[in-house]
Amino acid sequence: MKIQQKHVIESVFNALQYISYYHSPDFIQALVKAYEKETHDSSKNAIAQILINSKMAALGQRPLCQDTGIVNVFVEVGMDVTWDAELSLDDMINEGVRRAFTFEKNPLRASIVKDPLFSRENTKDNTPAVIHSKIVKGDKLSFTVAAKGCGSENKAKFTVLNPSDNIADWVLSMIPTMGAGWCPPGIIGIGVGGTAEKAMLMAKECLMEPIDIADIAQKTNPTNIEKLRLELLESINNLGIGAQGLGGLTTVLDVKIKDYPTHAASQAVAIIPNCAATRHLHFSMDGTGAAKLPEVDMSIYPDLEMDYSQYKHVDLKSLTREQMNDWKIGDTLLLTGTIITGRDAAHARLKKMLDNGEGLPKGVNFDNKFIYYVGPVDAVGDEVIGPAGPTTATRMDKYTDMMLENTNILGMIGKAERGDKTVQSIKEHKASYLIAVGGAAYLISKSIKKAKKIAFEEMGMEAMYEFEVNNMPVTVAVDSQGENIHDVFKNLQTLK
Q1: Which end of the chain is more exposed for a tag (fewer CB within 10 A), N or C?
Q2: Torsion of CA 164, 167, 170, 173, to 10 degrees
Q3: By the 8 A CB rule, do 343 and 398 touch?
Q4: Can you tell me the distance from the alpha carbon of 201 to that of 400, in angstroms, rounded to the nearest whole number?
Q5: Is the N-terminal amide bond of 185 cis, ω within 30° of 0?
Q6: Counted domains in the chain
Q7: Is residue 247 located within the same domain as residue 368?
Q8: Residue 217, domain CATH
């Protein structure tokens, strides 16, 4: 039978919508095990939020994470496939991406810029995808469709080791440098051999395989690669980084390794992590129609609810710096009041305006407020806002002095660690840095009761909003005395 163009487009569309709100069962099952054994309160709370968010997203069919990703597609084309199509395969795939990201019932955040060096203008529909095609025997198409968040993608590492060097040593030296911006707990993909680009491709490919490390641990005669996977899993988790970098027992749920023959003088090694919103789906097409996607078993989810009894309620309308002095790292808070949002491009625009003496945009008042680093998904139906989880705060470090010195903000909300200079600046200004859980975007959005764009509307996801929040869950990561929760695992390593 012929593969029809409309069926390829429909299959890619369906797959991207599906993975925007459904985790794979193996991921949920591994995360539940991590939750059950976790003994660190902050990490256990973070994992709970990720699991609760996942179930909410599945039921509401709205994105797990506000960063709905750059689309990665791996497709194997059978040599005997025949076509009923006018578009190229790449164009069919990109049309499926376009339709998925502009779907009225569940629009996904368009994050792709077409000019990476200069204008960085958004393509508005998240195209083009990154597509890898392979010609194989047979008469079918086999797809792996993934949506890769940039918080994890940005933490990719690559090196070329000497053949006699120890790969495990290099991997373990790199993991702490990745910080928490990749939203652990997740999966680490490692590619070894071939050439530089082959190693990176293998690291990405192996992230799409099922989580099976528990089965590997039960084998009586594991292969050398399986032994290395088990060794790295244990060693990485022993680093104590934990969920969201808060310290804990589980940083990775699985370690995947692919290798390929290489030059005798070379040992290329690549690492790519997959975050707590890991999203991928595998399907094939044989010409009989659009691909059939897996049924979802909701019984895999644990019976969890947010335990608000452990949180301190904070009224942002009356909050003072003196009250913030009582906050300690690890404190869990529920914020109620007004916050302002802004990401990279918004901060750059603010800097330009302040440098030019223009002041802040009309209607933007940071006085005695927090800035939330977020680029939310657009609202649908009666939603106030779409999924609105935090972006990596480290990218805003270069703007922290500017914001603290010119806006009278009380602090910032994001995810992951801050640099040493930023922590010092927070201490000097008696401010605070709070983290929301990366991977809990839909859950967080339910605490946002009003939302309006107040500046830079033309910048799409980079626009600034004013949010009215009620009981928004956060954790104190850097307190006004400069204590930093993300130093916990660093100090553990020093002791070791």
Answers
A1: C
A2: -140
A3: no
A4: 36
A5: yes
A6: 3
A7: no
A8: 3.30.1330
